[in-house]
Specification:
The structure is a homotetramer of 262-residue chains. With 262 residues, chain A is an alpha/beta fold. Chain A is built from 8 helices and 15 strands.
Amino acid sequence: MIKAGDFVLLYHSEDFKFLVLVQETGMFSTHRGNLSFSDIFGKSFGDWVETQMGARFYLLKPTLSDLMLKVKRTTTIVYPKDTGLMLLQTLVFPGARVIEVGSGSGALTTVLANFVRPDGRVYSYEKRMEFSVNARENVARYHLEGVCEFFVADPAEQGFLQQEVDAVFLDVPEPWLLVGAAKRALKNGYALAALVPTVEQLRRLTSALGAERFVRIRAKEILERGLFLRETGIRPVDRMVAHTAYLVFAHKATVEEAAIKE
Amino acid sequence: MIKAGDFVLLYHSEDFKFLVLVQETGMFSTHRGNLSFSDIFGKSFGDWVETQMGARFYLLKPTLSDLMLKVKRTTTIVYPKDTGLMLLQTLVFPGARVIEVGSGSGALTTVLANFVRPDGRVYSYEKRMEFSVNARENVARYHLEGVCEFFVADPAEQGFLQQEVDAVFLDVPEPWLLVGAAKRALKNGYALAALVPTVEQLRRLTSALGAERFVRIRAKEILERGLFLRETGIRPVDRMVAHTAYLVFAHKATVEEAAIKE
Amino acid sequence: MIKAGDFVLLYHSEDFKFLVLVQETGMFSTHRGNLSFSDIFGKSFGDWVETQMGARFYLLKPTLSDLMLKVKRTTTIVYPKDTGLMLLQTLVFPGARVIEVGSGSGALTTVLANFVRPDGRVYSYEKRMEFSVNARENVARYHLEGVCEFFVADPAEQGFLQQEVDAVFLDVPEPWLLVGAAKRALKNGYALAALVPTVEQLRRLTSALGAERFVRIRAKEILERGLFLRETGIRPVDRMVAHTAYLVFAHKATVEEAAIKE
Amino acid sequence: MIKAGDFVLLYHSEDFKFLVLVQETGMFSTHRGNLSFSDIFGKSFGDWVETQMGARFYLLKPTLSDLMLKVKRTTTIVYPKDTGLMLLQTLVFPGARVIEVGSGSGALTTVLANFVRPDGRVYSYEKRMEFSVNARENVARYHLEGVCEFFVADPAEQGFLQQEVDAVFLDVPEPWLLVGAAKRALKNGYALAALVPTVEQLRRLTSALGAERFVRIRAKEILERGLFLRETGIRPVDRMVAHTAYLVFAHKATVEEAAIKE
C-alpha cells in the first residue's frame, strides 16, 4: 500500500514519467492532466491511475537509476552506466565506509548510500556550499541521510577526516590534487575510482596515481545504447550519449619510493 | 594482515594476475616462479612479494569484478559491465530478497549476495545439477553462501517457492518461459532484469513480458572499451568485447487483462 | 577563382555553415548578416569573407560528405559513415555501371555518380515520382546528372532494365522483394549492398539472399563518434547517432539450386 | 571468363578465404585440399570449385576491402572502415591528383588509385625504401601501378614535388611535421585527412594544423561491428576491433597570419 512519504515513479512512458514524493494532500499536475494524491493512497505499486484527461500512469517502484536521474540537479550527474561499473571495480558492500568527492548533486551519493546501508557510511566532500546542501537534500528526500555525512571542505588542502576507508570515489575537475589524500585515507590494497571527461585530465590523473605508487591503474569507458522494441521491428535508438567520462581505477600499494627497484 | 582463508589478487599485470585463496601451507606456482603462502602471511594488502625468479606480485584486495571473472566456470558468465547496470535498473539493496535463474557459474550470484548481505537472500535456481553445485562452490569460496539458497529445479514448470521478492534476474536461454512465474514471485511494481544474446530471444522475451502485463519494457546494450595508458600515448585498446547480451528490464504491473482499455 | 555555378561551403563553424551555389547576382542571408555574391566572385577557395555583422565565413571546397548532407531532403538520407564502407565492400570505380534503389533524396546517388564518372552510369530507381524528381534535381545541382539515369518504376514487379552491372545498392523498406531482380542484373560474382534499419528486415533480407543463392552474406554496423578538440582538453562529443541502418553485403553466385549438395 | 592475371577471391567462409592471382599453371594449396588453376580457367566469377578433399570455394570478384586487407603487409594497414570515411571527407574523384604519406603497405594507395583512375594520380611518399618497394609491388599486383608514383623521400625535409593537389592523406607517426608541406601542395580550400593512433598525436597534429591556418579541423573515430546471421538467431559478433586511429580532417585556408583578427 502506497503511503505518504513513499517515492513513486509515475510512469506513462520513458519520455513522460515523474518521480513523485507522495504527500498527505494536494495533487500532481502534468500537461496531460492532474493526479490527486488521495487517489494514490491505498493503491499498490504496479497499479495505475488516470488523470482527468485520460492519461494513464503506472505507479512503479523507482529503481536506483530513477533516483539518480531525478535528483534536483545543480551539477552534471554521474550516469548509471558508469556507476554500475564503479561499484564492481571497487569494494562497496553493506557496512562499507567510503569517501566521495565531490558531492555534486548527490546522484552517486544515493547509490553508494543504498549499498552500504544500514551500518556503513558515505563521507561526501564538496567545497561549494550550495552543492553540498543540495546533495544532502536530495539524499534526505530518498531517506538515505542516515548513512551519509557531508563535509564542505577541500580535501586537496586539508585531507580527509577518515582513515581505513574501503573505497574512494573522485568526481572533481582536478582529481590529481586529491590522490595523496585518497591514498592516506584508503585501506591498503583497496581501490579508488575516478571520473574525468577529457584525455588531458586522464593523463594528469594517471600520472599522479603512479607518482603516489598506486598500482593496477586502468581506464575504461562505457557506452550504453538503447533499443526500440516496436511491433514493426527491433532496432537501436536513433541517438545516444557518446561520452560522459573516462573511468579510472587503481589500487593503493603500500610500497615506499625507497623500496622500488623496478 | 593477510591470513589463511583470505582471497588475494596476486597482481603482476592485467594479463598476469591470479585470485588466490590463502592457505595454511603450500605454495602457488606460476610460469614466472613460485610463491610460498608463508611469505604472504603477515603481509598487508598492498604489499608485494616476489617469486624466486624475480616476478613481483602485489597483494591486492579483489574487487567484485575480480570475483566474477575468476569463478570456476562451467558456463558463460554474466559480465561486470552488464551486471553494474542491472543493479541500478532493479531494486537491490542490503536486506533485499532476490531470485536468480540460472545459477550459471555463480558470477551474478556473487554480486547479488554481496549487496543483499547480511539479511537478504539470493534464491538461485538452476536445472542442471552440476552447474548448481559449481555455482554453490564458487559462492562458498567467497564466503557468501550464508545469504544464498540454491535450487535444482526448472521454475518454468514448478514456479518459484518465494513470493514478494524485490527483484528477479533471468539468465537462461528461454527466459520467456519464466515470465509468468517471475510475475507471481515479484512484488507489485518492482522490476525484473534479463539477459538474452540474440535478437530473436529479445523479441520473444519482450512479447512474453507484454502478454503478462509487465510495463516499462526496455532493452539496452553496454559496450566497455579499455584504454592503453602508455608513456608514449593514450589510446583505446586494440580489441574489445563486441557483444555479450541485450539487457531487458520491465516492471510488474498489477493490472488484469479485463481491466485494460488502452 | 570562384565563379557562378560553383558550389561553395560557407563555413563559420560546424554548426553554422552553408552549401551555396554561387550565382551571378544576389546575396546570401544568415542570422549573422548577409553576403553578396559579388563579394565572393574572384575570391579563391580558402579565402574568407565577412558579413556586415562581422561573421567570418571561409569559402571551402565542399566534400562529398557535405554534398550528401546538404541535399534537399524528402527522405531520410544514407549517411557518409555507411556510404564509405559500402564503396569498399562492393565494386565501384570510374566507368562502373551501378544500380541504386530507391533514389531517395539523391545523397547516395551523388556519391556513386562522383566515383563512376565520367564514363560509368548510375541507374537510379524510385517508385515515388516526387522523390525521383527531387533526387534528380539534387544531382543536377551538383553537375552530376550526366552519369545518372532516373527511373520511376518498381523493380520488384518489372525488374531492372540493365544487365551485367558492377554493383547494386538497395535502400528501400522491403529490399527482399528486389533480390531476384538484383541477381539477374548483377555480374556473376559481384556484390550487392543494402541498408535496413530493423533486425526483422535484416532477417528477411538475408533469408531472401540465401534463397537466391547469394553467398558471403554479411551484416555490419558503423558507429561514428566525433571528438571535441578544445584548448582545455580533448574528449568525445556528448551525443552521437546511435543507429542508422544495418549494412548488408553479398556476392552473386551462379550456382543453381539443383547443383547444391552442401 | 576467368583468365590468367585475374584476381579471384577463393571464398569458403569469412575465416577461410584467399585472394589469388590466377596463373597459367600450377595449383593453390590449402589445409582443406588443393585447387588447380586449370580448373579455374574458363569458369565464371560466381562459380565454385572444390578441392579433392571436398572443400567448396566460390570464385568471387574481390572488393576493394578484400584488396586492402590482403596486401602483403610490412606495416599496419589503414582499415576499410576508416578509408571509407576519408574518401567522403576529402576530394577524391576520377582524375584527381592526391598525395599520400607514407606508402605503408599500399592498402590506402590501392583505394585511392582505384578512384582516381585512369587520369588521376596518387603520389605516394615513403621514407623507408623497403616499405615503398613492397607498396609498389602490391599496387602493381592489382594492376593499378599506372596511376601511382612512388617516392622514397621524407617530405618533412624536402616538401612535396607536386602542387595544386586535390587531397593529402597523412598516415605517419609524426604527421605534424608534414602539415606545412601539405599546405603548400594542397589546392586552396581543399581538404587533408590524417590518421593518428594516440590522443597525444591528435593534440600535436591539430595544434600544427591550427598554426598553419588550416580551418574546419575535426576528429572522428569509426567503430565497425559485425553481426552473426545464424539460423538460431541474429546477434552482434563476440569481439571487434576497438580502435585503429583517430581520423583528422581539415581544410586549407589562404589567410595569412597577419590578416587574422578573430
